[in-house]
């Protein structure tokens, strides 16, 4: 894995966490932001 792949994987994981947190608190805004991070990753 190179540096860019590690950064991409980190964004993907962070996005998944943010998406799940948004689901737990009922925030569609946080879910959308999480999905966006996953896409960037």
Automatic annotation (TrEMBL):
Q: Where is the segment annotated Disordered?
A: 1-41
Q: Which residues cross the membrane?
A: none
- This chain belongs to which protein, by name? CsbD family protein
**Where does the record place Basic and acidic residues bias?**
1-22
Organism of provenance: Nitrosomonas nitrosa
Taxonomic superkingdom: Bacteria
Bias-annotated ranges (Polar residues): 27-41
InterPro entries found in the cross-reference section: YjbJ_sf
Q: Which SUPFAM superfamilies does the annotation name?
A: Hypothetical protein YjbJ
